Amino acid sequence: MKIEFAPLSVPLRRRLQTASVVQWVFSFLALAQCCTAAFIALFFTRFWLLCVLYAVWWFKDRDKPSKGGRRIHAVRNSIVWRYMRDYFPITLVKTVELDPRQNYLMGFHPHGVLATGAFLNFCTEASGFSTLFTGQSGGVYRCSVFFPLCPPGLVSSDKESASYVLKKPEGGNALAIIIGGAQEALDARPGSCTLLLKNRRGFVRLAIEHGTPLVPVFSFGENDLFEQVRNPQGSWLRRVQHQLQKIMGISLPLFHARGIFQYSFGLVPYRRPIYTVVGKPIPVQRNYKPSEEEVERVHEKYVKELTKLFEEHKAKYNIPEDRHLEFI
């Protein structure tokens, strides 16, 4: 294989963009494991007291992920995220105004390999979420096991955590849920429009219970950042990945793209644009105990609006006219 190396004359600005993305990939894939290993290693040294103090703090703070998380504006507004935004680049697109007195539940599609668009648009201010949607504070509803190590904006992926955000009476809160989850990442490859949504109804039930409008969000280009080893449904590789997901709780897509100093192989995403389009809110009537029929009816409306959003905007973002969403 011929290796294409990056030229030495790359501007400093682009090097900083690459560095910001590299730290994000490392944080996503290995930071928790490295911190756990460091914690264990330090415990058997003369610094063991620091480990004990951290463990006590973690125990006392263990409920924080289920109560809105910890928002540190200096971190959300860090220049690191702006460099990361410009690497691809990533753009947040508003189609309608959102009422700042209202809470919203946003369904984000597709997951992609590392959910890059969801993180950057809703967990940071790099794309100007709070400015674009005046009065709204974003947060991505995703699993956060080692919460103290995660950036502000992430909250725990349980119903208690979501309810805490959506029931705030003052409004102005936007909770984004990556509907397809880790399993959908196994179908994330360039050109893919496959969404895991047919049997995902928990978010709809949650919206009905709180009377929170549903907002479909589609991130064009999310699946184009990495190549993935071929793993069609029914293949031995897909079966192994599903089994590992059941055991570990996370999927393990075999993805690859470019490297830090060369463009031929590695785990750094390609420089390909992402356009995250926020659609029109779907009003939901509050019902503390919705029936299956009511959930199904709202789910069908959500799928219809998401499809409409995709079809209306796909031509702007170079999606072929004959390509449509596929729901599984």
TrEMBL record:
Entry's EC annotation: 2.3.1.-
Chain segments annotated as coiled-coil in the UniProt record: none
Membrane topology according to the record: Multi-pass membrane protein
GO CC terms: endoplasmic reticulum membrane
Signal sequence extent: none
Subcellular location: Endoplasmic reticulum membrane
Lineage, opening ranks: Eukaryota, Metazoa, Chordata, Craniata, Vertebrata
Primary localization class, coarse: endoplasmic reticulum
PANTHER family, sorted: 2-ACYLGLYCEROL O-ACYLTRANSFERASE 2, DIACYLGLYCEROL O-ACYLTRANSFERASE
Name by which UniProt lists this protein: Acyltransferase
Transmembrane segments: 24-57
GO terms for biological process, alphabetical: diacylglycerol biosynthetic process; triglyceride biosynthetic process
Keywords: Acyltransferase, Endoplasmic reticulum, Lipid biosynthesis, Lipid metabolism, Membrane, Transferase, Transmembrane, Transmembrane helix
GO molecular function, one term: diacylglycerol O-acyltransferase activity
Enzyme class, first EC level, given as a word: transferase
Sequence similarity: Belongs to the diacylglycerol acyltransferase family.
